[in-house]
């Protein structure tokens, strides 16, 4: 079936904004500017300030939800389902997971390449699958277990590629690259806890996806903004990446933005893109399918990688190609993307349906939204 112009627009919007989300965050990390005391220029290393901007983007989804709801109620026959009433505090635990994971990932993005950052985020399916079995009593299909094993292999290959490139990379130290990769994987464990919490306590309340994203964004924005105050006084040595060597120096971030306004453009790109990415992702799931959303999310990794190579942000490494392909296969197996292909082959049609029905596949890939980027 041919896509409509609106569906093509949504697919393009999701792919574009999802790619901009990671690329703009990495672009901000690559700037150097003077800080508050007009000393020597130093790198813009403010992951927690970036995370606040990301949550501001998520929070804007709440405004979009109420705008759409208000517009729908003016119709003679409203079509939008606002969902059930719920206690907003239900979103506090997953929002705290989101806040922690996003902050860790922005720290890691300072240490490694944008493409490796995006590829390693695929490890979330390993921990989500295992936690779903342990806490949601879910039975994973054979293809999902195989997908997890293939994904582990892909992570090993990507990690090996980073190890090899780390010895030749002038932009990142080998120790920083390895630490960054490990932090990304650690963050995916927290993201998987977030997803399990959302499914166990949130989704059964039939909350509209935009409202869910916006509510989590509200909690993340408020809590992390308040945490910037104690972070200003917590010494962490050279790990801080700012002149005062504290956990986060928000004042230094604003001073650097004042000296180099292009940093603000990169941060706004991150904030705006995460809002549009969540909207586009939800709309793609609704208007086309969750399968299409997962394919577009995989293509996003390819776009980020291609742009990073074109801009000279990183060098080409053959092992990374192999790692990406293996991760792609692992993701496809876990999310059941192989079934439509098998169903078209007469001798394999039975295999396509033996692992579960289409509704289960859509549930695994859909759930209305994906974890945020900092999309998440």
UniProtKB/TrEMBL annotation:
GO terms for cellular component: membrane; mitochondrion. It comes from Salarias fasciatus (Jewelled blenny). May play a role as a nucleotide-sugar transporter. It is a multi-pass membrane protein. It is found in: Membrane; Mitochondrion. The gene is LOC115401797. One of its GO terms (molecular function) is transmembrane transporter activity. Interacts with SLC25A5. Pfam families: SLC35F. Keywords: Membrane, Mitochondrion, Transmembrane, Transmembrane helix, Transport. The lineage of its organism: Eukaryota, Metazoa, Chordata, Craniata, Vertebrata. One of its GO terms (biological process) is negative regulation of mitochondrial outer membrane permeabilization involved in apoptotic signaling pathway. This is Solute carrier family 35 member F6.
């Amino acid at each position: 079936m041919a896509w409509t112009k609106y569906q093509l627009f949504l697919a393009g919007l999701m792919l574009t904004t999802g790619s901009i989300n990671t690329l703009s965050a990495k672009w901000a990390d690559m700037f150097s500017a003077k800080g508050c005391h007009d000393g020597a220029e130093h790198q813009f290393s403010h992951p927690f300030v970036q995370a606040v901007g990301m949550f501001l983007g998520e929070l804007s989804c709440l405004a979009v939800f109420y705008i759409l709801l208000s517009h729908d109620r003016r119709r003679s026959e409203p079509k939008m389902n606002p969902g059930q009433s719920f206690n907003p505090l239900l979103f506090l635990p997953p929002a705290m997971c989101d806040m922690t994971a996003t902050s860790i990932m922005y720290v890691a993005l300072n240490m490694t390449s944008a493409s490796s950052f995006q590829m390693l985020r695929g490890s979330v399916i390993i921990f989500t699958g295992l936690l779903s079995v342990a806490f949601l009593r879910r039975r994973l299909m054979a293809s999902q277990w195989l997908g997890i094993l293939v994904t582990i292999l892909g992570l090993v290959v990507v990690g090996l590629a980073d190890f090899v490139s780390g010895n030749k990379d002038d932009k990142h130290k080998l120790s920083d690259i390895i630490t960054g990769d490990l932090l990304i994987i650690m963050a995916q464990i927290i993201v998987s806890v977030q997803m399990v919490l959302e499914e166990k306590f949130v989704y059964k309340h039939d909350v509209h996806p935009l409202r869910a994203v916006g509510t989590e964004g509200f909690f993340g924005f408020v809590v992390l903004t308040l945490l910037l105050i104690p972070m200003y006084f917590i010494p962490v040595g050279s790990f801080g990446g700012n002149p005062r060597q504290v956990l986060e120096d928000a004042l230094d971030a604003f001073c650097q933005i004042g000296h180099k306004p292009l940093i603000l453009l990169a941060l706004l790109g991150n904030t705006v893109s995460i809002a549009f990415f969540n909207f586009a992702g939800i709309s793609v799931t609704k208007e086309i399918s969750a399968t299409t959303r997962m394919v577009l999310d995989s293509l996003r990794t390819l776009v980020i990688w291609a742009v990073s190579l074109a801009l000279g942000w990183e060098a080409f490494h053959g092992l990374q190609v192999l790692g990406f392909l293996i991760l792609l296969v692992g993701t496809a197996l876990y999310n059941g993307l192989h079934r439509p292909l098998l169903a078209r082959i007469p001798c394999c049609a039975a295999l396509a349906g033996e692992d579960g029905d289409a509704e289960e596949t859509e549930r695994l890939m859909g759930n209305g939204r994906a974890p945020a980027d900092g999309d998440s």
